[in-house]
Design goal:
Chain lengths: 276, 76
């Protein structure tokens, strides 16, 4: 009987003794174990979901890049997305931002798809098992941090490549008196070098917090129903209604965080290209 | 007070920062809406700045959340 198996499966996901273990969903587990030269290069669930995100990205783009004179629905979607990023780059950087549009577009779309895939409730697909859950690759600092360092490196390379050592004038806003500059330069310096950290941290924490929230309320539903019909009505039903709202909010957050990451990358690029 | 209780109390105190950042985020969107209703034609051009303000206000709340998580799960 699938219901009994389901109940047993769900109970194991809520840790023993009624304690909720919201951090369990973030464990990176190897799917195919690989070791080379003393390093663990296993194919993990994180890598799997990033590969799925890449496949979705490819499928979405290839399906829409038809260059038809009268675009169909799919081509409209792809053109809407590329147009959105192109427009953002033009308003924030100007005509020179055109060169960096492919990078920011790939960044934006990859983060967006990773965020959405993390919210995908694959536990309801029976053959995968009730404990199967999708993995938000962007809920790990190792992923978002690398993306942030990538953006920051491009900013540094472009900045020093275009302006040479004049790039350091970024730390002293134009027309600052020298006694103010002594104060402002260290502050600007710190705020510049904290950028990759804050960029990666924002995305990772926003996704982690959302998933913890969903996990906690999901556990409330299960433990409430296990405790009896009274608790089910008192605890599980409000939790269930709340989780619908939170899921909608999380879809919004997934889109906003991808947008904010791309927006801040374009602003930092603007600093590097046009200085202050 | 033993360490376990102190940790839980500390995490709860750190959560105050999350609530305060909610005030900040609400203020960003509230002020935007207030002025956008006065001059709807100029509102679309300021959407980028709206999200920069949102990101800055939200980051501090998220850092407060990180502090709570570090206290609960990382600090020994």
């Amino acid at each position: 009987m699938p219901a009994a198996a389901g109940e047993r499966g769900v109970r194991t996901s809520v840790a023993a003794g009624g304690n909720i273990d919201p951090m369990h969903q973030f464990t990176v587990e190897p799917i195919v174990g690989l070791h080379a030269g003393g390093y663990d290069i296993s194919f993990t669930n994180s890598a799997l979901w990033m590969a799925i995100a890449l496949l979705c990205f490819w499928g979405f783009m290839i399906g829409g890049m038809k260059r038809e004179l009268v675009p169909g629905r799919w081509q409209m979607m792809v053109e809407g997305l590329t147009g959105f990023v192109t427009n953002m780059m033009r308003t924030n950087i100007g005509p020179e931002g055109r060169k960096f549009t492919p990078y920011v577009f790939s960044l934006f779309t990859f983060i967006l798809i990773c965020n959405f895939l993390g919210l995908f409730p694959i536990g309801i697909i029976r053959p995968l098992g009730v404990n199967a859950h999708s993995f938000a690759a962007t809920s790990h600092f190792s992923i978002t941090g690398v993306l942030a360092i990538l953006s920051f490196s491009i900013v540094l390379i472009v900045g020093f490549g275009r302006h040479g050592f004049h790039f350091f004038s970024l730390f002293v806003p134009h027309g600052t008196p020298w006694y103010i500059a002594l104060l402002v330069a260290p502050i600007e310096f710190v705020s510049f070098f904290v950028r990759p950290f804050s960029l990666g941290l924002r995305l990772f924490v926003a996704m982690t917090a959302g998933h913890i929230l969903l996990d906690v309320f999901g556990s409330f539903i299960v433990t409430g129903l296990n405790a009896g019909p009274g608790y089910g009505l008192l605890v599980s039903l409000p939790s269930f209604l709340l989780i619908i709202g939170i899921s909608a909010l999380e879809i919004l957050v997934a889109a906003i965080q991808a947008y904010v990451f791309a927006l801040l990358t374009s602003l930092y690029l603007n600093d590097a290209i046009n200085l202050h | 007070m033993d360490l376990a209780s102190a940790k839980v109390i500390g995490a709860g105190l750190a959560a105050i920062g999350v609530g305060l950042s909610a005030l900040g985020v609400g203020n960003v969107f509230g002020s935007f809406l207030e002025s956008a209703l006065r001059n709807p034609a100029a509102a679309d051009g300021q959407q980028g700045r709206l999200f920069i303000g949102f990101a800055a206000a939200e980051l501090l709340g998220l850092i407060a959340f990180v502090v709570a998580i570090i206290i609960l799960f990382v600090a020994k």
